[in-house]
Amino acid sequence: MAKAAKSVEELQVFQKALLASAEISAILKGPSWRRDLRLRDQLGSASERVVSAISEGFEQSTDRHFAQYLYRAKGSSREIRTQLIVALQRGHVTDSQRASASDKYEEIARMLTGLIRHLETEDRKHRR
């Protein structure tokens, strides 16, 4: 059995979400985004929400509450993949940029699903 993480930074899914968020930030620096500020802000916010929800959830006192935050992170991950499709259609990203970022968020979503299942099975009432 794997040892429990003592900090959110120890979670592999958190580390991957940070890297994926940095990739989104780099994508959003492209010049075409200046004419589509709403989509740029939505995509940037969604990538930040994934990291933030994992972090905030980690601090919850029960596994069930932590899982609720992970569901939110998973939803934001899906939102990002959808926004990347829109960004591709609007010419803000190349297909390879979309695929790279989308693949990262798909992996994050799978990892979140696994962690959610674990938490719902454990359902510790006092995580700390």
How would you describe this structure to a colleague?
The protein is mostly helical. The chain has a single domain, classed as 23S rRNA-intervening sequence (de novo design (two linked rop proteins)), CATH 1.20.1440. It is 73% helix and 0% strand. Helix 1 (12-27) runs antiparallel to helix 2 (37-58), helix 1 (12-27) runs antiparallel to helix 4 (95-122) and helix 2 (37-58) runs antiparallel to helix 3 (63-89).
Present the secondary structure layout.
Layout: H1 12-27, H2 37-58, H3 63-89, H4 95-122
Helix pairs in contact: 1-2, 1-4, 2-3, 3-4
Question: Which characteristics define this entry?
Answer:
mainly alpha, de novo design (two linked rop proteins)
Fold-level CATH name:
de novo design (two linked rop proteins)
* Mean pLDDT figure: 93
CATH architecture annotation name: Up-down Bundle
Helical element count?
4
How big is the Rg? 16 Å
**CATH superfamily caption:** 23S rRNA-intervening sequence
Query: Judging from the principal axes of the Cα atoms, what is the shape?
Result: elongated
CATH class call: Mainly Alpha
Main beta-sheet annotation:
none
Count of domains:
1
- Let me know the number of strands: 0
Distance, first to last CA: 19 Å
Strand content: under 5%
Give a concise summary.
The protein is an all-alpha fold and 128 residues long. It has one domain (10-29, 36-122): Up-down Bundle (de novo design (two linked rop proteins)), CATH 1.20.1440.60. The chain has helices at 12-27, 37-58, 63-89, 95-122.
